[in-house]
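Example 3.2
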Amino acid sequence: MNKQIIVDLVSGFLGAGKTTLISKYAAFRIKQGERVAIIENEFGEIGIDGELLKDAGLTVTEIVNGCICCTMKVDLLTTLEGMCNDNPPDRVIIEPTGIFIIEGISEILNDDRIKYTHKLCGVVTVIDALGYKKQQHRYTMFFKQQILYANRLILSKIDGMSEAEIIDTIDALRDIVGNVQIEAKSWDDLTADDWDNLFASKNNDCDCEHTHNHNHHQEEPTHGGFRGITVPCLRTLSKPELNDLLMRIVTEEFGDIPRAKGFVPNDNKGFWLFNLVGEQIKIVKATEAERDARASFIGINMNKNELAKLFS
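Structure, written as tokens:
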């Protein structure tokens, strides 16, 4: 293979909006004539976001039930190595779990199996502008690590925020990262130059050596006690019923659960797609496609049996 495959990494804490950003970014790259592949890593037992990316017509490989910075590292290496075939993609976009340890990406891409065939370019962290304060204080390690090791940051969920609120968010982030570029434009307004700049390497020359590699993690990361579980959704629920159910989860009745998502049967023989991020709840009709009714949760000290009863 004469030309190296470009690798872009889109990080961000649980529910920040990584999948949405990747969908838009991949569409931009495809319009530029590139062949794009996506690797979607879910901490839970079964993927949800990969299914949504596939709905958008994108080529997705899913790695589930663990994190690619530790337990699923071999799976990631095998997937990347397998792309070096007769018709490799021009670019692969990796979406790790929301509790990914970014500094591990250099070690992965410097593995002898892929160090000459792949090169890291963009390392972008998505910041939930609505939830970052709680995330920063409650999940400090993941929040700060994903910010400090990114090339650039981009704010999500800014629609409806005032200019003053956005500026306050940027100022708070700068107290942590200093002069790193922070993109605060509506994603629908991003131009070709914006996309190119956002995913440029720090040195503007995609080089997998550019990220920090301090080897802080000599042992496998523990992920702060987080685990992922998935339960089947057997109950047919109305939108208000589902919202009430999710509100119970927000109150931490079933554990500390900052992220939940899934497909729940509705009264019209279709599915609700729900997303829970902290105290933010969003429920919409899923696109008309065949679904496995299931809910995925990431959290600490979760009661799996009681969560399963909610949806059965």
